[in-house]
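LAB NOTEBOOK - FOLDING QUEUE
OPERATOR: T.R.
BATCH SIZE: 2
PURPOSE: Compare the predicted C-alpha cell outputs for two unrelated chains run back to back under identical settings.
PRIORITY: normal
REVIEWER: second-year student, initials M.K.

ITEM 1
FIELD SEQUENCE / FIELD STRUCTURE:
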Amino acid sequence: MRSPWLAGAIVAGLVFAACGDDDGGDADLPLVEEIEPAVEALEEELSDAPQYFEIRATPLFVTLWVSADQGHRAIPYVYAEGELADAGESQEAEGFTFASADALAFDADAVLDHVSDDLDSPLSQFSIVGTESGDPRFSVTAQSDRGGELDIQLDADGTPLEAVPAD
C-alpha cells in the first residue's frame, strides 16, 4: 500500500540523518537489500515487469526509474520503509534500459563489502544502470571528506572493476 506521507517521511529522514552522528555502521550504507523488495512492489503495482533506466539505492530509500513512451520518458518511483510512493512526474529520457531479472543478479549481502572494507569514505549511493549490451552496470559512489566523489564500477559480487571521478 502506498502512503501519501511518504515524501514527508523521506525529507524528515534526511534531516535526522544529517543531524545524527556517524559511527560508520551499516546504517550509513546504501539500502541494497531493499532493491529486490522495491522491484517486487513496483512490478506488483504495475502488474508488469517494466524496463528500467536506473535503480538507485541511498542510505534512506530506493528510486526506480522506469522506461515509458518507448524509452523516451522515465518515471521515478520511490520505495522507502517498505512502501512504494506514487509515481513521480515523468521526464524526458534517453539511454539504455535493462530488465529487473538482470538487475537483481548481484549479491545484496556482499556487493558493498569490498569497497566499504577498503575505503574510509561514506558510500552515498549504489546504482544499477542500463548499458548498450543490455546487461546492467553496478556502481557505488564514495564521498571524500574533501568534497569529491568517486564512482566505482563493480561486478555482481562487489569486486571493483574501475574507479573514476563522479560527474
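ITEM 2
FIELD SEQUENCE / FIELD STRUCTURE:
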Amino acid sequence: MLGDEVGRGVGDLGDGLDEVRLEHGVVLPRVGVQACRAEGVFQDAADELQIFKRERAHVRSSNAPAGEPLTIGKSDYDSFERLLGEIQSAYSAEDINALRSKVTPEMLSYFSEQFAENASRGVVNKVDNVRLEQGDLAEGWREGTIEYATVAMRFSLTDRMIDRASGRTIEGGESGEVTELWTFMRARGGDWLLSAIQQM
C-alpha cells in the first residue's frame, strides 16, 4: 500500500526522538501517539486523530511559532479527494511523470525509491478501487505564502503485490479500508501537492 512505503518519511521516528520536523514545517510528535498505539489505547482512527490534534497543538505552542489558521473549503476537499485517486493510480502505474505534478520533490523521491526496490524484487504494487469514505481536517495553517492542510483520509481500496513478469497476484488482493494522515501544501492561490503521509 502506498502509505506503507512513504510513511517512513513521516512516521518512523527513531528511539530517543520526541518529534520529527519535516522540511516543509510539519512537526509530528513521537511521544503520546506512538505510546498510545503500542498500549492499545486507541479504540479507532477517530481516537488517534484527536490525540494527533492535541499533540500538534502542544508542539506548536511550545516548540515553534504558530502559523496562521487556514480555512479549508469544499473546493479544497474536492481537490484532496481527486489527488487521492490520481496519486494512487499513478503509484500503481509507477508513473513518475504523473506523480511529479501532484507531490513535492521529497515525496517523489520516496516513491522513486520504492519503485526501484520493487523492480529489484520483480514485483509491482497495484492499488485499485480507491474510494474516499471520509476526510476529516486535522489542521489547516499558513506560514508566509505557503498553505498547509493535514487531513485524515479514510478510504477503501484493493491492495495487491503482483509478479512483474507474469502478472500473477502473489500477495494481498482483498478489499480493505485504511485511514492515513495526508498533508497537502500549496503556494497561496496555487494547486495542492501531497507533501507527507502518516499511517494511523
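REVIEWER COMMENT (ITEM 2): The chain has one domain: 2-199.
FOLLOW-UP: none requested
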